[in-house]
Amino acid sequence: MKYSELSTPWKRIFELEWESLCKGSKAIAAVIVDEEGDIVSEGRNQIAEWTIPNTIVAHAEAEAVRSLNLRKHRHPKTYTLYTGLEPCIMCMGTIVMGHIRKVVIAARDDYGGAMHLINHSDFAKSKGMQVTFLDNELGDMQRAFQTLRELMYNDDEEKKAQMMTDFSVYNKVGVDAAMSLFEDSFFKSRTPNEMTVEEVYDALMARC
Fold first, then answer.
1. 89-134 pLDDT, tens per residue?
2. Can you give the pTM of this predicted structure?
3. Terminal alpha carbon distance of the chain
4. Residue 153 and residue 192: Cα distance in Å, rounded?
5. Which run of H or E residues covers position 198?
6. pLDDT digit string (tens) for 22-41?
7. Whole-angstrom Cα Rg for the chain
8. Helix 137-153 to helix 8-22 angle, to the nearest 10 degrees?
9. How many CA atoms does the CB half-sphere of 3 hold within 13 Å?
10. What does the DSSP 8-state code read for residue 25?
């Protein structure tokens, strides 16, 4: 599926992820949509940017929930949060406490993902959370974007190798596509900031 064929929430997620990557942050993003499917809030990873005093907690899902204007949008329990990657412990808790009850996830994360913890908390279970893992090409693309970020900015070869292993558990196709694109000097003549998310997405998809 080409970028132009994606639904609006996923187009925006990958657009935000590319923005984060271009700024050195992790390529992870989330959006919240209302009952009509309109985006009412969004967030992206900003750990490499000094947007807040403590950037290590500037995670996509937490930022999306934090930015939801409850004075204008009064029914968050009917909204859906879409995210590229399974939320971590902090973001899972923020989603639950933020009254979001439906979550759609592109890529699983056995290492840092925490949505399974809902089933270990009586409080969280009482909220009636609906969690959907898509497990399709969107997951591969999510991991491809994350792989590109690590290839561009991570100088710790040991850590980077471990991350590639983690990314490949469910989405090796996406990891391989990103590594192939990077090794073929796709980014040699232009910086990421000079490229659009659409051309990068479609170039990756052609290799998946």
1. 999 999 999 999 999 999 999 999 999 999 999 999 999 999 999 9
2. 0.97
3. 10
4. 12
5. helix 197-205
6. 999 999 999 999 999 999 99
7. 17
8. 10
9. 17
10. S
